[in-house]
């Protein structure tokens, strides 16, 4: 059985719909908390797939959160070895940093809420993105930071606010600024865990909940095809 390790930064930003697809694809899944877990053990175990999930901190805050250095080093090693790696939100930013790209606060401010993505110039090279590029499908955006595209990467998706929403390095590494993995039920934990951020951004939880109820089912269907397509290409 193949082994997947998922690094979490806050418990409620979990694998979501990706967990089912990993199980369906035959992966044994292990979760490691970046804040308190033994990240060094991941390098020793050399999992078949590494998934780096989101969190409310910035890649550039390494003095406050020194485990970020370990994550960047781990990802850099996997990039050099072309080991399959997925990064979502903070995870994508960590991949970008490990690949030599800049990560910084976004000039357009917070992008929080449901909305579509548009195809990047290289999207046709990765046909698994097609379900997500359907204009009727909306993904969840929840970030304030952004990244430059890593050298040599494929630019796969954009939004009006932030051009760099997804990239791939070869067929082994995927970075997603937006959230494909979320579910309506799982987001109830986000509304509590990110309560202070939502208040500061003057975003109302009832509005987010209504959007989730309206858009999550279509995303779940598209996400199943997306994850399955990407995993099958490894």
H/E element order: EHEHEHEHEEEEEEEEHHH
Q: Could you tell me the mean pLDDT? A: 97
Number of helices: 7
| Proper CATH architecture | 3-Layer(aba) Sandwich
Characterise this structure:
With 234 residues, this protein is of the alpha/beta class. It has a single domain, classed as Class I glutamine amidotransferase (GATase) domain (Rossmann fold, 3-Layer(aba) Sandwich). Helix content is 35%, strand content 23%. It has seven helices and twelve strands. Helix 1 runs parallel beside helix 7. The longest helix has 28 residues, at 205-232. It is globular.
Comma- or semicolon-separated keywords:
single chain; 12 strands; 234 residues; 23% strand; globular; Rossmann fold; two-stranded antiparallel ribbon
Could you give the topology of this structure?
Elements lengths: L1 E7 L8 H8 L2 E7 L6 H6 L3 E4 L14 H15 L3 E4 L1 H9 L4 E3 L5 E5 L2 E2 L19 E5 L1 E3 L6 E5 L7 E4 L3 E4 L7 H10 L1 H6 L4 H28 L2
Parallel strand pairs: 1-2, 1-3, 3-4, 4-12
Antiparallel strand pairs: 5-9, 6-8, 7-10, 10-11, 11-12
Helix pairs in contact: 1-7, 3-4, 5-7
């Amino acid at each position: 059985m193949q082994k997947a390790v998922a690094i979490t930064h806050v418990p409620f930003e979990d694998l979501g719909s990706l967990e089912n697809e990993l199980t369906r694809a035959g992966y044994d899944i292990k979760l490691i908390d970046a804040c308190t877990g033994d990240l060094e053990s991941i390098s020793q175990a050399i999992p078949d797939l590494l998934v780096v999930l989101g969190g409310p901190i910035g890649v550039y805050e390494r003095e406050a959160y020194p485990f970020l250095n370990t994550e960047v080093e781990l990802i850099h090693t996997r990039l050099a070895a072309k080991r399959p790696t997925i990064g979502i939100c903070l995870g994508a930013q960590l991949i970008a940093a490990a690949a030599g790209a800049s990560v910084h606060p976004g000039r357009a401010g917070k992008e929080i809420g449901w909305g579509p993505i548009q195809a990047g110039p290289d999207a046709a090279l990765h046909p698994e993105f097609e379900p997500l590029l359907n204009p009727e499908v909306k993904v969840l955006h929840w970030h304030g930071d952004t990244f430059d595209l890593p050298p040599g990467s494929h630019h796969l998706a954009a939004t009006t606010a932030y051009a760099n929403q997804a990239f791939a390095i070869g067929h082994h590494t995927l970075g997603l600024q937006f959230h494909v993995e979320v579910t309506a039920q799982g987001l109830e934990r986000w509304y509590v865990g990110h309560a202070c951020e939502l208040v500061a951004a003057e975003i109302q939880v009832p509005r987010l909940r209504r959007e989730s109820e309206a858009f999550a089912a279509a995303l779940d269907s598209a996400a199943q095809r997306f994850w399955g397509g990407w995993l099958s290409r490894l």
